[in-house]
Amino acid sequence: MKKINKYIYLLLACVGATTIVSCNKQLDMEPLSAVTPEKFLFTEADLAAYTIQQYSFPTHDGWNPGTFSADNHTDNQATTGISNIWVPGEWRVPQAGGNWDFTHIRNANYFIETVVPRWKENKLTGTAANIAHYIGEGYFLRAYTYFNKVQNFGDFPIVKNTLPDKMDELVLASQRRPRNEVARFILSDLDSAITLLKAVSPNGTNRISKNAALLFKSRVALHEASWLTYHKNTSQVPGGPGWPGTGKVAGFNMNIDTEIDFFLTQAMDAAAQVADAVPLVANTKDNGYNSSANPYAAMFADVDMSKYGEVLLWRRYDPSQGIFHNVNHYINTSGGNTGYTRGLVDNFLMSNGLPIYANGSGYAGDDSLQLVKVNRDNRLQLFMKTPGNLRLTDKVNPDGSPLLTGRPDIVGLAETRDVTGYPVKKGFSYLASNTEGSMGNTGSIVFRAVEAYLNYMEASYMKEGTLNGKATQYWQAIRNRAGVNPDFRSTVDATVMSEEAKNDFAAYSKGNLLSDKTLYNIRRERRSELIAEGFRMYDLKRWRALDQLKTKPYIIEGFKVWGPMESWYKNVAGASVLIESGTPGKTPNVSKKSESSYLRPYRINNTPSNFVYNGYRWTEAHYLEPIAIKHLIITSTAGDINSAAIYQNPGWPTVANLGAQ
Questions:
Q1: What is the pTM assigned to this prediction?
Q2: 174-197 core/surface letters (b: 16 or more CB in 10 A; e: else)
Q3: Which of 28, 140, 283, 561 has the most CB atoms less than 10 A away?
C-alpha cells in the first residue's frame, strides 16, 4: 500500500553515499521544491499545504485489497507468498537502504524550526486557531515518524532540528538513544500537538484532530509499556543483558518498572479522554447477507466516512481526480490473494460468550462456511464472506435475480485466490462502480476510536491487575456491539489456555503460555475487533508472543476442505479439480488430506523456495529490523564497523547478506 499523499519535495537518499556528509544531507538541507521560496511558510495556507503533504499513513492504493490485507503473514491472515520474517537465517542484513532514514524527520524539523519562531513573533497571517492547528500537525507528524522508527529499530537517534554540514555534529546526531527516551520524546511532541490541535480540524476528519492525537498517544504509550514489560531482562530492552547500547549510550539510566508505570498511566489517561468522548458506531447485527444498511459494516466501506463519529481520521478518494483504489475489485469479486486463518476464525466466541470448545457453547461445527458462523460473534458474521451473500445492491443478474457471492476459489490465479477458504469481507462495498478497475472510491480509515477503548482496557489491567469501572464499561460496550454476551467474566471462566494455544499466538508471552485468563481475553477482544486492519504483527511483537515458535513451528491452516465442502470443487464432468500435494506427475493445488482435514496453504508445494513449508519459526532478533551495513560504515572511523557511532540491533550480524539465527 502506498501513502495518503506524495511529498512536496524531492529528497536526497543515502544510496550511493560514501561519506557521512553525503548521507546526512537529509538532515542538514532545507526541503527542496527546486529550492524552497524564502517567502513560503508565512501564511495559514502555506502551513496547511506543507503539513498535508507530509501525511504518510497506510491507506488503500493500487491493485490489491488495500489495508484489509495488511495482516497477511500473521496467524490472522495468509497470502500465497511467504515472508522471511518467519524464516531465521533468510531475513538478511542489507548492504544499504532500509528504514534507517531521516527524510520525514528532517521535513518535520524544518517545518517546526521555521514556523514556530515566526508564530511566536506574530509573523504568520491567517486565522490564529488554524495556524496553531497546523503547527500542532507538525508536532504530530514528527511523533508519528519517530514511532515508526521505534517499532522498526527500538533505540534511535533523537534529532530535533536540521543540522549543519559538519562531520562531528552529524556523527554525534547519529548516535542512538534508548527506546524509552525516544518514546518519551514522542509523547512530548504529542502533548504539544494535543495542546494546539482543534477538536474539529479545518477539514473535518480528513485531517488530524485533537482526538486523533490523543488516540495515537495512547497507542505509543501502551506499545512502550508492553514492550518493556514483556521484553524485560532481554537484549531488546535498554540495560538488559546483551543490550548492544551498553557502554555506548552516554548518560543512560533507567528504572524499568518506573518507566512501565509511567507509560501505562499515560496510555490510560489519553485513551480515556477519547473513549469517554466518542461513542461506538451502532451495529444492527444482521447475519451478513446484506450489511449495506448496517452502520458498523458500512463504516469500513462508505464513500463518505465523515458521518461515523468513531472514525477519527480517514482518506477520501475521487476517481474523477485520479485518486482511486481497487479494493473491491478484489474484496467483492474474488478472494484477493488473502484469507482468514482457521486460528482466527476458531478464536471468535459464540454469541453467548463461550469459546467454541466449551460445554454448552452451541458451536455448529465447520463442515460449511455457513455453519461456522451460526450463533457466533457478529463480527465474524459481518466480516467473512459466505456463499450466497448478496454482492451488489445496484445491479442484478440478467434474469432479475440478485448477484450473490460464490464459493471460495482456492485453486484459481494467485492474484484473486481465496488463499485459506475463509474470505475477507471487511471493507465490502455493495456498489458495482467500486468493483470496476480504477474506480474504487470507498474511504480508508486511519484512526478509529474503538482502539482507545481497547488500549485503556489493556493498560489499566496491566497497571492495576484488575478491571476498574472504566475498563468494564468499555469492554461491555465493545461486546454489546459485537452481539456477544457482555458478561466477559463468563468467557474468562470458560477459557482453557491449552485450547487457545492451538489458535492464537497471543496465548503466549516470553515463550510461556499465559496463566492470566483475563489478560488473555483482553487480547482476544483486540484480535476480534481489529481483524484485517494491520494491527496483528504490531501486537504480537510488543507482547513478545512469538518466542514459542523457536521450538514449536506453527503450520497455518484454513477451512475444512476435506469434508462436505470438498464437493464444491468439481468440473462439469463431476470429477474433482483438487490435486493433493505430492500427486505424481501433477501440479498440486491443495494440501494432503492425510495431513489434515484443513487446507494448509503453505504445505501445497514443497519447493526449495518455500521456506515455511514446515511452519512458521522465529528468532528473537526478528522483533526488530537490522540496520543496513552502509549506515554503520559511514559513522565509523576509517570504515571500521567496531568504531561506528551506530550499533547494530541485537542478534543481527554486522556483515551484509547474513541472517540472524
A1: 0.94
A2: bbbbbbbbbbbbbbebbbbbbebb
A3: 140
